[in-house]
Amino acid sequence: MATDALRAQVAAKWQESFARLNHNEPGIVGLLNFTQAWNIARECIRPRGLDEPDSFTQYDKSTFQASFELLNKSRRLPILLESLLEDMRKRFPVIKEEVDRYTLEYERTSDTSFILNLVFRLLKWYKKWLPMQELGATLHSAFVLSFQTHLFSVLTPTFVRGFKDLCASTLPSTDPRTNVPAPNVEMWQAFEILGLLDRYENIIASVGYEHIEAHVVAACSGRWSNPMLGQLRKWMTDKVVPWMLLMYARNATTADDARAMLQNVGSRFDFHMAKTLCDLRTKEIFDIIIDYPDSSGALQDLKECLHRVDQRASLVHTLRKANQKRLLHPGADTRLILTQYVATIKCLRVVDPPGVLLFKVADPIRRYLRERPDTIRCIVSNLVGDDDSGDSLVDESEPIQPLQQYELDDYLDSNWEPEPVDAGPDFRANKPSDVISTLVSIYDSRDLFVKELQLLLAQRLLAIIDDDTEKVEKERRNVEILKIRFGEAALQICEVMLKDMTDSKRIDGHVQSQKASIVHPIILSKQFWPMLEATEIVMPGQFRTLQDEYAKEFTAFKPDKKLRWLPHLGTVHLVLHLEDRIVEVDVPPLEAAFIELFSQQDVWTMDELIAKVGSSVDGTAALKALLTWVDLGVLKEQAENTFRLLEVAESAADGAREWRTVTKSVIELPSAPSIQQQQAEQMRVYWKFIEGMLTNLGSLSLDRIQAMLKLAPGYDQTIEQLGIFMEAARLEELVVVRDGMWKLTPK
Amino acid sequence: MKVEVKRWHAVAQWRWDTGVLSEDSGKGDDDEGEVCGICRVPFEGCCPVCKVPGDDCPLIWGECSHVFHMHCLLKWIGTQASKQQCPMDRRPWGERHPLAHFFFRICHNQCM
């Protein structure tokens, strides 16, 4: 039940509204006018079908102006706007239907022209519905906003895909033969008017990025000989920038204007190009390094890209992973690893002169190499230029220089620069040193190298037969070169070895002039040659005589010296006169000793033979020697371990071999024990000390043993090596260990 | 069968003949060899001053039958403290006549 007050209130409101719409016109004329104006206004801004005539054809322009004035005065414009938007919402399904139809068509055919047509079609609708400018900015912007909102709500993901394809189709093709499509300015304008540019900016940019990526990959992958970055930049200017102009500099009037607008987005694209190239090269880095120096162009690119894009960490990561997978496994030859390591050094020095990248990448390789037993041998044989292995690690053109040692910081260095920011804590800014220094620095001590060098030199010198002075000269040259690297003192021993060679020759010359002999020995200075595997052979028969005669002559020449033969080394050139054939052959001394024994007696068992030449010859070596003769058809294994001389060759049926004169060479490099064996040999000396200690003091810790051994002359083993040795002794059941205390096994 | 040796490319080591009696038994002095009483380097090595062994760093035989690197001994004799004595037995140093060495050996061989 309404009260009077309420009634009065409602009445007052009614009066007020009425007065506003009626404008103080008599009766309801004002109200009628308003109604008419409202209708006209609604009619002319109503969203129409495309085939309906425009509002201007029906109404005069001034009519609307008047109607609008009237509505404005009555403050009904907001309501009008609302009804317009409502109408639009109601009409929008028509557009949606159209969008669906076109996108469906596109989905079916994947033809971007459908999308293009759809866009133009949408533009038509938009233009049809767009209210006149005169109606004010509020109405206009409200319309645009609402239209776009509706439009975006009906655009399906398919449309987005089609839109992307459409953009992509406007890009210049990667194939240089096809022409650049003429820029479709209208299309871009349509995009802008419909607000598609702003909404799908990311998509358009990604189209550009993908285009760049595709081009970079197509143009650059696998091509490492020349720097590509310059070409790519040119391509960007020629092909991509015009495309970008359409979009990002559409409002530009002058060239400067355009440049300013492009600056931001252009540098983004340039960055993306550099990143793509960098990624590509990073992916290929392992193969680029293999190809070095043919791949220096790629390295230049990589260097520049890394300046632009911070991808250093990823480069290190990728390369380390590739190395782990492709290089540092048991299947890879040590030589190969070294070659790749050297190439890595050279490549990364190009990319990153301060060497931070190199340091990070090289670390695992160096650690791995350190564990390989033949690394030193490989490096050393490369140093002395072993010819059997193709390319050398060392660049011939690189000047030979002394090995560089890590130097402490020079505080007075005026060119000092701080370490690069991404350097790790243990990074050492080593100056660009030569490859050999780097290789040698894999190991903490260079003594190992010098030892290995001596060993190798000894082997090679002993392998020289026929007084080949040229070969000795070659070794001398090598040693001279190595002296520059390792220093005079370290190679003193090698020097003596070479001197022994020439001295031997001189002495031999003298001895021969006194009394001709068929023996031509190399006379070594014992202390200066590496321990050579010692097997004592007592040379039988005429060999013994030959030795003694020569030794006598030697002592006559050098009264204060005498000779001690190393009968297991060297080679003998023999001619065997058999009943039906002559065999001429170069053999090691053990073989010669055996065959000499066979000349005394036709059948021997292996044990008898060994007993004759000295018991230090082991079974395998003896068997090998005998088999050499079996291979030559001189001996035959009659029963197990019993051999018979074949005075007459066995019938050809037994083995179609050619007898007559067999000239063969069965020489191998004299084997020398490896460094490890030598170390073990050294440790054996110290075992006596250890045994004594443990006998006197009961049980001792490893530290104590090490500390006490340090007092022994010439002891240079680390505690780890001692540990390994003690462990070996434990396995031999010489010692027992409990709680880190070692003691002798109780007897 | 007759084995004819055309050429033997052998390997040997030289040793100083220090007149040690065990010389021909061959096995006794196998590895270590003897060392100079002054520098403790094997005779076949060289004294601390030299770099090349052998004739460039010869031995010296004393009358007292002690043997040293010549350079080591001369240095010792050159010092005041030496009083011209053999560092091993403090007898007056005198060099054995080079030929004495031979006579000694010849006698020795004959005795054998």
From TrEMBL, chain A:
SMART domains: APC2, CULLIN. It comes from Lentinula guzmanii. GO terms for molecular function: ubiquitin protein ligase binding. GO terms for cellular component: anaphase-promoting complex. It comes from the Eukaryota. One of its GO terms (biological process) is ubiquitin-dependent protein catabolic process. Pfam families: ANAPC2, Cullin_AB, TPR_ANAPC2. The lineage of its organism: Eukaryota, Fungi, Dikarya, Basidiomycota, Agaricomycotina. Keywords: Cell cycle, Cell division, Mitosis, Ubl conjugation pathway. Residues 408-614 form the Cullin family profile domain. The keyword Cell division applies. This is Anaphase-promoting complex subunit 2. Belongs to the cullin family. InterPro entries: ANAPC2, ANAPC2_C, Cullin-like_AB, Cullin_homology, Cullin_homology_sf, TPR_ANAPC2, WH-like_DNA-bd_sf, WH_DNA-bd_sf.
TrEMBL record, chain B:
It comes from Lentinula guzmanii. One of its GO terms (cellular component) is anaphase-promoting complex. PROSITE patterns: ZF_RING_2. Residues 47-90 form the RING-type domain. Keywords: Cell cycle, Cell division, Metal-binding, Mitosis, Ubl conjugation pathway, Zinc, Zinc-finger. One of its GO terms (molecular function) is ubiquitin protein ligase activity. GO terms for biological process: anaphase-promoting complex-dependent catabolic process; cell division. Transmembrane segments: none annotated. This is Anaphase-promoting complex subunit 11. InterPro entries: RING-box_E3_Ubiquitin_Ligase, RING-H2_APC11, Znf_RING, Znf_RING/FYVE/PHD. It comes from the Eukaryota.
